[in-house]
Amino acid sequence: MTKIVVFGASGQAGREIAAVAEARGHEVAKIGRDPGVLAAPEVAAGYDVAVSSVVDLSRDPAEFYAQAARSLVASGVRRIIVIGIYPLLETAPGVRVVDAPDFPAEHRPFCLGHAAGVDVLARSEADWLVMSPAGMFGGTSTGTYRLGAADPADKLTYADFALAVVDEIERPTHRRTQVGVASTQDHL
């Protein structure tokens, strides 16, 4: 049994991740907006894994996600899994979705805010992983998923995403990187 703290457990992804982890017999603490991820150094003490599926649209994204990442690192948990976003995935080596010339300018600040959090993790000594939908959330749960590059045609259900996150908690195979997750297409 792993002790897992899920920040953002009141949101759809966090709620699904917590439910799958509990169903598999893990001890799960579900944290919503209060006290929130910025309290991670106090709240996550003694946990094995911290999962962060948080957003605060009232704050500057770069400031919020960088501060959230610093709080997760300061918590001292053995493993940090951050739920990322599709536009930060690469479409080719070194080329992210957000870097495309036709990427909507109004979404760039939020995406680059997420990137600021990833940069904090990358500069730390923490064992971290960012897991992102490789396409868009939608469809019916398949009970299966695949890891891979960004593809706008891909779909990912929250249930399949939760399976991928909890599988990575139970059998860590990716470290200090970002991976894309999609539901298995032939089942959608």
Helices and strands in order:
Elements: E1 3-7, H1 12-23, E2 27-31, H2 40-43, E3 49-52, H3 61-74, E4 79-83, E5 90-92, E6 95-96, H4 108-123, E7 128-133, E8 136-137, E9 145-148, E10 155-156, H5 158-170, E11 177-183
Helix pairs in contact: 1-5, 3-4
What does this structure look like?
By secondary structure, this protein is of the alpha/beta class. It contains five helices and eleven strands, in the order E-H-E-H-E-H-E-E-E-H-E-E-E-E-H-E. It has helices spanning 12-23, 40-43, 61-74, 108-123, 158-170; strands at 3-7, 27-31, 49-52, 79-83, 90-92, 95-96, 128-133, 136-137, 145-148, 155-156, 177-183. The strands form three sheets. The protein has a seven-stranded mixed β-sheet, sandwiched between helices. Strands 5-6 form a two-stranded antiparallel ribbon. Helix 1 links the parallel strand 1 (3-7) and strand 2. The longest helix has 16 residues, at 108-123. It is globular, with a radius of gyration of 15 Å. The termini are far apart.
